Automatic annotation (TrEMBL):
Record-stated family: Belongs to the LOR family.
The protein's name in its UniProt record: Tubby C-terminal domain-containing protein
Matching Gene3D superfamilies: LURP1-related
Pfam families per UniProt: LOR
InterPro entries given in the database record: LOR, LOR_sf, Tubby-like_C
Length: 196
């Protein structure tokens, strides 16, 4: 699947492309829900070779299911929160620097569909990505038009994950794509699937 992930020029994402959140080569993120977190919504996000990319910390008590995303150095990137009173679960990411985006859930039988809207930092263009997931096959794809941006797969559940209701995701991301955006989309997908 990585071979269909070609580089994006200009870079694609709401965060500035000069940050380590972009790579000039395909990256596989390994996203693990932390089993013993008090909030139940903490994620560890690393590359497949073990380099930490993000820290995702859920709030212990939060009506909007808020999660703070920080880079590996601990700098806050954005807070992801559930948009209340929506028919289909949707999320808004608000950044201290104004690099905001929205993930809107859409109705679909036996699959998960969302649209992701943001202003691309590199060129100021409005962008809409589409996510379509098939959880019977434990996979999802994120696309810009017909062009693949990332592929998400869920690891087969082992006993510990089944007991604690935690998941591990593998996310293949195209070169020059904001890794924090893709990780947030995966977290939104996890939230929607856990709700259903």
């Amino acid at each position: 699947m990585k071979k269909d992930l070609t580089p994006f020029y200009p870079p694609l994402g709401p965060q500035p492309s000069r940050t380590p959140l972009y790579a000039p080569y395909p990256v596989t993120l390994v996203m693990k829900e932390k089993v013993l977190s008090l909030s139940g919504d903490d994620f560890k996000v690393e590359t497949s070779d073990g380099a930490q990319i993000l820290k995702v910390k859920g709030k212990y008590v939060s009506i909007r299911d808020k999660k703070k995303f920080k880079d590996a150095s601990g700098r806050e990137l954005f807070t992801l929160s559930n948009k209340m009173l929506k028919l289909h679960k949707s999320f808004k990411a608000q950044s201290p620097d104004g690099h905001d985006f929205v993930v809107k859930g859409h109705f679909s039988l036996a699959s998960s569909k969302s649209s992701i809207e943001f202003t691309n930092h590199a060129d100021g263009a409005p962008v809409e990505l589409r996510l379509k997931g098939d959880w019977f096959d434990r996979k999802a794809s994120i696309k810009l038009g017909d062009r693949p941006v990332a592929h998400i797969t869920r690891k087969l559940i082992n006993g510990r994950e089944l007991f604690f209701d935690k998941q591990t995701y593998f996310v293949s991301v195209a070169p020059n794509v904001d890794l924090s955006l893709i990780a947030a989309i995966c977290v939104c997908l996890d939230e929607r699937e856990n709700e259903d």
